[in-house]
Amino acid sequence: MLVDSHCHLDFPGLAEHLPDLLARMTEQGVGHALCVGVDLENFPRVRALAESHPRLFASVGLHPDYTDCHEPDVEELLSLAGHPRVVAIGETGLDYFRLTGDLEWQRERFRTHIRAARACRKPLIVHTRAAAEDTLRVMMEEGAGEAGGVMHCFTESLSVAERALDMGFFISFSGIVTFKNAVDLKAVARTVPLSRMLVETDAPYLAPAPHRGRTNEPAFVRHVAEEIARLRGISYEEVAEATTANFFSLFKSALPASGMEAA
Predict the structure, then answer these.
(1) What is the pLDDT of residues 171-183, one digit of tens each?
(2) Residue 205 belongs to domain spanning
(3) What CATH number does the domain containing 200 carry?
(4) Is residue 136 part of a domain?
């Protein structure tokens, strides 16, 4: 059994096809998925998915490069994270890829999420793009290791992975690891301890080979696990068992759906 540790099933292109998505998850041995919040305006949709489907979980947060959105404070995040189906804070972090100028507001937003995660003792889902050094610095300054969490859709160097691992974070690989030109990332996937690894789709984005160019979906996380197994010279079943166990170890408030094993 696999878990898709990061997807956006409330997004257009997925939300209207949910029964079919869940059926294909079953066909591919994907038992659960974490639906990740990216803003508070649409968080009720994410929460409703988790309330309505025992195989789905939710997180709450504001994406680092979203502007013109309601900006939550620690107290609001804590209130929303108190829902029993909300298992994490995020996604949060830093993203300097498209934005320029003074980005101190991003770093303050990230600090708010870390403080909320520490207060509610739920893990962080960290997004970093073109901002690895600042991301790690803020995490260290704010004691993010006390909350723990995952570096989602990891595309950074082995050095960045090792520093995140040292803070107690997990490393999550997406469909990017299946891309032929992702040579450096494949090397990281060979090296990160299997006991600290998750797999994800980031659906509807980043569909893995052989589905590149299509709308991504949780069922496709199987290809990520298969590629990691190939890179490490181990069985697919070993990767599936480990990453699923890791998911439920990290997201401790997540409970497997009735009749489904956690590992």
Answers:
(1) 999 999 999 999 9
(2) 2-250
(3) 3.20.20.140
(4) yes
